Write the structure tokens for this entry.
Amino acid sequence: MPATALTYPLLAALSAVLLPFLGFLLSAALGKKAGNGAIAISAISLSLLAAGYAFSQVWNQEPIHVQWNWFTVGSQEFHVGLMLDNMAVLMLVLVCLIALPVHIYSAAYMKGDPGIHRYWTYLSLFCFAMLGLVVADNLLLMYVCWELVGFASYLLIGFWFTKDAAVQANKKAFIVNRIGDLGFLIGIALTYSHLGTLDTGALVAAPETLPAPWLTVAGLAFFLGAMAKSAQFPLHVWLPDAMEGPTSVSSLIHAATMVAAGVFLLARIFPVFNETVLLVIAATGAITALVAAYFALTQFDIKKILAFSTISQLGFMMVGIGIGMYPVALFHLSTHAFFKCLLFLCAGAVIHEMQHIKETHGLAIDPQDIRNMGGLRKYMPLTFAAMLIASLALAGFPFTSGYLSKDALIVHSFEWAALQPGAAKLIPYVLALVSMLTSFYILRLLAKVFFGAFSVASANGTIRPHEVPAKMLVPMLFLAGCSLFPLFSIHPLNDGHVWLMQGLTTTVSTLPPLRMLHLVIPLLTASATCVAATVAWHWYVNGRYPLKTTGLFYRLSQNQGYLDTLYDATVVRPILRLSRLLLWTDHYIVDRAVNGLAALGRSFAATAAWIDQRLVDGLVRLVGKLAWGLGNVFRRLQTGRVQHYFTTLFLLILVILLYHIVVLL
Amino acid sequence: MIPLTHFLIVGACLFAAGLYAVLARRNAILVLVGIELMINASILNLVAFGRYDKTLYGGQVFALFAIVLAAAAVAVALAIILNVYKFHKSVNPEDIKNLKD
């Protein structure tokens, strides 16, 4: 039975969640006066302190579950509560730890933007929603926060709402996410109708209570929700477009908040999934990882490359869930959060500098196009160092955090595949291939941006880019430190010593370990990484690019598999046509019918008015006229002359007499 | 013996002449004369019908009463006519419209 009394760790977690909300309210209330972001930054700092305290009290201790009555429908009570277990406090700290550097970085990055007060407001709301999501103890509350995350991301992606591309992008993100939200909602409804409760803790009973087909449907529905939120193929299309938002927002979306929500949801409701669903999740994850890495190979927009890399890494995490090792997925989520956030912040620094150059020299260049960069290593050494660490972590190079998590994932997937029949055995090989592609495209990015000659400067020798201000550098260096191995494991090369996984694995039935793999796989992936890096170096830095840019595979990658074109042709345009048809129907059929009815009503009213005026009023007027006419006639009798009176009297008597004679005789 | 009808015819003629005078004359004195003629026509009828009441002579008695009343009425009416004349300087009934409100 969950408690209702508040203890210190609970209070800390609650305040960690509510402080950004308070920051959101204050920023919204103060409006333009909150432009320097002091409120949002202090809110998230305090939140981090509170989350850290909660973490220290809960990690590897008994989970704390507190619950209050929320509302009652009929005899069904709905609860609201906090579930503080290892997973929740880990995410709580992670979100705050990522959000704080992003906040500080934003203060410099967004300086001078006319809408910066809105930026802080939205950012606080975003953090609040994500923090609420991770501590929620039931699906309903999770769903509320889930929607809030989606809404806040909608606001932030469309932050520069005067740009048409930004508006299109946030609309796309919102609509694609709606598809997933529908899945989540169906999952909630199925769970509730069979279990009669929405508590995530009660989901352990799901496999026994739900009939097998419904269990599969519910699992797939939940996964659909996670697919949209965590940008899984083929619902990933919103994420590359979401790059229209400010770069600092992208870093937050990609690291700890938006896309992490899907993976976290799957980990939280893990007991619901049966074998079939897990296989679907693993397969989808593998396909996503491969496709996104393939698309990332040929992009020229620095942020798009990173976006596809995020999608690819999310695919890895999905495979982690799919093979039943969600601690590994969460571990990869945590390490990825740091180095991906750092990658975006570095990209932001570069874009910031390119934008500056563009404005001061009046150049007509796209500040995000890597073809305009090059050689920045000499001008921005610290940014380069940070970017290098993050890239190596992404590529899974030894001594980085990415090495630990990625190798753990691949090794576990091999262990899992050893027990699987048929095509599922391919999944680990796909992951290994993707990890090679990853190191290739990230090295390509590094080469194009930081090595070679600065392409803009070669046309105009006076241009010299500068290092970014300290306010942006400090968060970047902090994250660079977090991207190395010591934060996660004392042993740089063995994932068996990772405290994070040890804390989470307690509840999971581990796979039978294959000792050999722990030695072979890291060696193989590391050497593959080196080979890919060498090839990329040879191609891009030394300028010996061997491929034609007109080949089918190149164009397929460049155009992101023509998925947007496909969706446009199969979904968007038919819907637009349908809506035009409906508009026509509305104008010409519904409106006409309504207008006809109105005309009928009007003519009926006119008839009624005529009857009223002519017949009813006429009758009344007739009575009046009659009285008046009679009065007028009798008025004439009163002449005032005595002889007339006599005459009248005589005639009257005569009439009476005649009456008597005629009638009575 | 003169039959009753003759009396009645004479009475009716007298009444008609009186009525005409009352309705048509342009002199109040002559209107008064018309009234007297009508009264006398009715008295004549009373006397004529009195033939059928040989015991009490009701007709004759009523005739006497009516003569007395007619004389009184003439006296009053003449006084009114005098006053009207003093007020209107005319005895033509056409000129006197004060019976209206």
Summary: The domain at 4-92 of chain B is CATH 1.10.287.3510 (Helix Hairpins).
